Amino acid sequence: MKNRTKVLIIDDNEIQLIMTRQWLELDGFDVVTKSSPFGTALAIRREQPDIVLLDLSMPGLDGHGVVEVLKQQPGSPRIGIIFYSSQDRLQLDAVVRKHSALGAIPKTETGQAFIAEFRRLSDAWMAGAPALTKGISGPNKK
Fold it and tell me: Of 53, 86, 92, 94, whose CB is crowded by the most CB atoms within 10 A?
């Protein structure tokens, strides 16, 4: 049985990727990172994360596109999606509703504020919050 929540962070900004990884690891999460949205479905099958922390604004394939690709994958594991972006809160809330994600955290939230919000969303998810995103939601059963 798995003890720690596993998080896959996808962000094209290397500095943001490193900082976010450190915050989550210091708070006890098991973290894997990707600096490109391409190959996300393969990374999910390989790493089997519980939650994907997904940047919305990436070149070539943005967060919206990543979610749409994941929805099309046959046999996709059930994963919670949390968006992480520089967009304002109103835009992020609209994206969460559009994709039925767990939630969104603005990149302006750093350190303790980021961890508090991420922990709130992930704890609810791992406690069995209802499935939210068709094909990619619900806690992994390992």
Answer: 53
Residue 10 burial (CB count, 10 A): 25
Indicate the helix (H) or strand (E) that contains 66: helix 63-72
Task: Report how far apart, in Å, the C-alpha atoms of 46 and of each of 39, 41, 42, 73 are.
Answer: 11, 9, 6, 14
Q: What is the pTM of this model?
A: 0.80
- Interatomic CA distance for residues 133 and 1, integer angstroms: 25
Is the separation of the CB atoms in 51 and 58 below 8 Å?
A: no
Residues 75-105 have pLDDT tens digits of 666 788 888 887 777 787 787 777 778 888 8
**What are the E-state strand segments in 1-142?**
6-10, 30-34, 51-55, 80-85, 103-106
